Description:
alpha/beta, four-stranded antiparallel β-sheet, 15 strands, elongated, binds 5'-O-[(L-methionyl)-sulphamoyl]adenosine
Amino acid sequence: MTAAKDTFYITTPIYYANDVPHIGHAYTTVAADVLARWRRLNGDRVFFLTGTDEHGQKVAQAAADRGVDPQRHVDEINPRWHDMNRLLRISNDDFIRTTDPRHTKRVQEFMQRLYDRGDLYTATYTGPYCVRCEGYYTIEELLDGGLCPIHRKPVERLEQENWFFRLSRYADALLDLYDRHPDFVRPAARLNEVRSFVAAGLDDISASRSAFDWGVPVPWEPGHVFYVWFDALLNYITASGYGDSDEFARRWPADVHLIGKDILRFHAVYWPAMLMAAGVEVPRQIFAHGFLLVGGEKMGKSNATGIAPAQLVEHFGRDCYRYYFLREISFGHDGTFSWESMSDRYTADLANALGNLVNRVLNMVGSYCDGVVPEPTGATGEPEARLFEDLAVATDGLEAFDRLDFQRGLADLWTFVSGVNRYVEARAPWAQRKAGDSDGLHTTLYTCVDALRIIAVLILPVMPDAAEALWAKLGIGDDLHGLRLPRAATRGMLPVGARTTRGDVLFPRLDDT
Ligand code: MSP
């Protein structure tokens, strides 16, 4: 008997190994990481995959420009992607390189299957081709009579005797898929785009190249390598154990492929068609996010707007980095990065709303109770009731993460952070102390520290460093990473007698001079 799917499987695109990571790439990876950590916090077994796309003409050209052979080139570039993941504390479970033998072998097996089933044939094709996209365009798609619609650079005319994939055969099955699973592509507007594209009729697509050899060899045709997009898309199954039935059965189909909108057609049209052709289940969802813009332009290496994540992490810290993009930009839409807005978010949401709160509460516990969490012996009333309503906003709101609506989830979580600030003001523990109301004071402080405990749990997917630092200050002892929702966010779970410490402030003032 084969195993049943029991794993939440999430992927990022695999990044071209000709490039150094910039904040546009990190955007997808961080979002995927937050979702992965969120699902783990909810008790799921998670498989989170990322990696690098190392074949194809574009990579071969980048290697040639540097005067090194392609394998050496990709071996040299690869560590930069691992560095980026470490820098941003990405918790991927695997990292696939398309030059890995485990990948190339399975690509060949999969493609052999398409061949055996009669879905591949040879023909000569001539057409406009963009090397940067590694793809053909039709004349109508070109801009200003001859420019690639994505890169706005002149295309080449490429004639090749190639193997072709019978994509046209799958048009009806694809339309049927979109109708039966309207969530297959999100946001919804993107599904409409894809549907119109398929409804207009599909041409077969070329599946091999013979003009260069940097790719996975076609087993039955010496001198040909598979078209890099076939090779690349297949990473999602080769890395998850395709061909090894148990692991694969537990993971596949992927729950969500996170991608940028520029590679939607490959994922929402070609990819499910390839899988259908091989008799493999299609993924559950493709989510296409928007572009990060800098000064109104798509951020990228080529237009000199490229910003490395390290530049921002150095100034704002990695927690703020992880928080900022997801809080500031609606996932699915384009959004503008600016230093000023990042600085504003840092100050308002992190340093003031959260950092000061932690400081203030722990200072009071320190000076009024020797740092020991008191027993809440006083009565509770309206301020507690309001606080728990705010907590419900946060815990309900965070479920938006499952819809990739990080902005909503974080806004709702900060309703609770502000709610705790309001609670402190409403209860005025300094006044309770002055009035000698120690029962009231103890209830107030217990409630505040309990709220900080819940905040530490709820920020964990987005800001793991701050969550751990806060957790350590609370002196609770349990392993934060072992906690699960909903139990961990239930009020009143803070142990009386825990020894809190003030320590360093969580989000120190920025030096913005
Ligand atoms: N190698 C292919 C993907 C193959 S997946 C089977 C590729 N690589 S890429 O490195 O060019 O791009 C990877 C991802 O980064 C894409 O999803 C792309 O949308 C994203 N981004 C690159 N620049 C971006 C921005 N400025 N903003 C947001 N994301 C952008 O395509």
